[in-house]
Every structure is written in C-alpha cells, then in structure tokens.
Amino acid sequence: MGMDGTNAYGRADDWPEPVGRALRAAREHGFAQSCRPEQGRLLQVLAGGARVRIGESGTGHGVGLAWLASGAAPGVELVSVERDPDRASAAAGLFADRPDVRVLCADWTELYAHGPYDLLVLDGGGQAKGGGTADPERLLAPGGVLVVDDFTPVGSWPPLFEGRPDGARLHWLQHPALRAVDLPLAADLSSVVAVRKHPE
Length: 200
Ligand SMILES: C[S@@+](CC[C@H](N)C(=O)[O-])C[C@H]1O[C@@H](n2cnc3c(N)ncnc32)[C@H](O)[C@@H]1O
Description:
By secondary structure, this protein is of the alpha/beta class.
C-alpha cells in the first residue's frame, strides 16, 4: 500500500467489481491506504494459482481482498484479518454475498488458526516491519506464495531504507524457508514475492 493507494485509481466505475465497490467504500470512509492498482493486479494474478485457501493481514476497506477475490478460482477460501472494528465490519459487509470470503476482526496472528495458505498477503501486521513477523513455515503450504507489499525498488545490494540496510526486505529475501524476489511494480513500488520451499 502507499498512503495514496486509494487515490491512485481515478474513477471507481472504471474498475471491475468487486474492486470498484471496495474503492467506493474506502473513499466514503476517508481511507487512503488501499493497495495500488499495480499491486492489485499482482494479487489477482497470484490468486489464480491458489488451490485451497488465501490469507491476508490488514483488510483495510477490502480493495486488495477484492482483487484477490476476483482472481481466485471457485471454491477457494479467502480469509482476511483486520484489527480495526469499523473497517472489519465495513469490509465484511462488502463481501456479504461471497460465502467464500471471510473478514475477521482480530490481530493478524489470528491467521495462524485458519491456515495453511496457498497464497498469503501481508499488508497489516506480520511483515517484519515492526508489527510482528509472520512464520512462513507455519502459515504457508509447501509451494505456497507469500507477498509483502510496499517497498521501493533499489538497484544496489543490500537494499537500503532511509540510508540503512532494509531489515524487513532482507528478512524475506534471505529467509531460509523461502525463495524470494523483490519485484518492481512501478518506479516507486516493489513487492517481495516468495515461495515456500518444499521439504527436502
Ligand atoms: C495498508 S492497510 C491495508 C490495505 C488493504 N490490504 C488493501 O489492499 O486495500 C493496513 C491495514 O492493516 C490494519 N492493521 C495494522 N496492524 C494490524 C494488525 N496487527 N492486525 C490486523 N490488522 C492490522 C490497519 O488497521 C489497516 O487497516
């Protein structure tokens, strides 16, 4: 997410449902931190590879969840966790007609109780950015995919954040249980995409 993610979309009517519906809700609530369209398209593509279950930390007003839901195959379950009660309730209402989508009002750690996930998107807790660090070996199925959003593309190693080695990005890129890549999505936006290694 960028702080201006919600505004990066222009007209909500130009986006397919349920993305447009979630965007309208985010705007009505003055919520700026939705995922950007570049990230949304990545989530939509990756959701298509999930077979059983997709998880997300940090629902916000459901824009990223809408992209995931629009890309997931029929029968795939989506679980998204949001700690803010108003946001969780509004997002749950948006997906009331989708029994495959559950929005839980809880800390991100609640995701442990509902896994494992074929695709896990960390966008509100668990990203190793100060709000806890998710354990991919407990949360991901073998071969499962992890997405951690909201980095800035860099051309040097190690990646820097505010002039210092970017500990969160290094955590994911060097995680022994993962194969990971820092994927540029726009000039000012990249996501870490990782796959949980199969046990040897
Ligand atoms: C960047 S926004 C999420 C945007 C959303 N994923 C989207 O794509 O539109 C982050 C959200 O995470 C929530 N959040 C932050 N820390 C959390 C935690 N520890 N557990 C659950 N949710 C959390 C915030 O309340 C906020 O709504």
